[in-house]
Amino acid sequence: MATATYNFSDYLSQINPFNRKDSSTLLTRAKAAANLLYDPQKQEANRQAKLDELQSITNTQKLKRANAGVDDSLAYNNSQAKKAAAIRAAGSGAIGSSGLTDYLNNEADTATQAQRMNIAATLAGNLTDESSRYQGVLDDTNQTLSDIETNRGNTSETLYNQYEDAQDTAETVWDTNALSVALGIGSGVNTAADINMRQANAAAALKEQRYEADLPYKALTQYQKGTLDLDTTKTMGRTPNSVRNISGDGSITYDVPSGGVGLRQYAEAAGKSVGYDSSTGNISVGNKTLTSTDLKNMGGYIGSNGRWVIPQSAIASIM
Fold first, then answer.
1. Is the domain of 187 the same as that of 294?
2. Stretch among 76-80, 106-110, 220-224 having the lowest mean pLDDT
3. What 3-state class would DSSP assign to 251?
4. Closest Cα to residue 293, out of 234, 214, 249, 242?
5. Long-range Cβ contacts of 78-81 (<8 Å, 24+ apart)
6. Residue 209 domain-assigned?
7. pLDDT per residue as tens digits for the range 24-59
8. What domain range includes position 279?
């Protein structure tokens, strides 16, 4: 008898391997997740930077507009001062009044120039302050954008590592389950082999028992066999199955026993017609009708050819 071979590698190969996602796919997924988090922050920072730039431009324009009429005002004031100086000099009537006029005009020019320089210095200082303020805002914006990109990269790397760890865990669980399934397959194969072996052993034992059970019956004389068949039929309602041929593969066929004859063969040889009613199973021999129960009570049974076999001792009553 063939022995089952336990092949764990073969059982394990029947299970699909874990379908691990490649690193490039995981990295792309991590970057996409990080972008969803930091793209809105970057957009907001850029929007605020644009507003800051527009605010600086507006502030600069306001400062310049505030000084747009300064030169005209200073020139007017200067002309008025000179006019007053001329009137003053003329009113004095003193000799050398032209020298006084020049002196006064020079004073007026000096004062006007001083005012102009003060105003220009103030404007320049205000513009410098605005420029410094905006540069500080711009530096803060650039730092914010830099921090966003740094955080984006760190988050992407963290997510990627988490995805890889999750794949490792899933693969470990898959492999563990695969081992359990492979063990289950092997257990099933061994159990099936054990059942088959038990069935084969049982069939061999049954064959041996049947053979041993037949030995006493086969040793009987023809008369003893016919008498035994008839007696058993009357007791059990059927002919015993002890008369049989057992082939090498264990299959069984029943033959006409010694002391038994084929009913149709015997009746037709005696000149009797034999009929069969398929709807009732009744047999007619000549003008006599016999049911299957009648035939069984006589010790009859259906042989391997599908026809009734009757003990020799009962055939006379039928004829």
1. no
2. 220-224
3. coil
4. 234
5. 78/108, 78/109, 78/112, 81/105, 81/107, 81/108, 81/111, 81/112
6. no
7. 999 999 999 999 999 999 999 999 999 999 999 998
8. 221-318
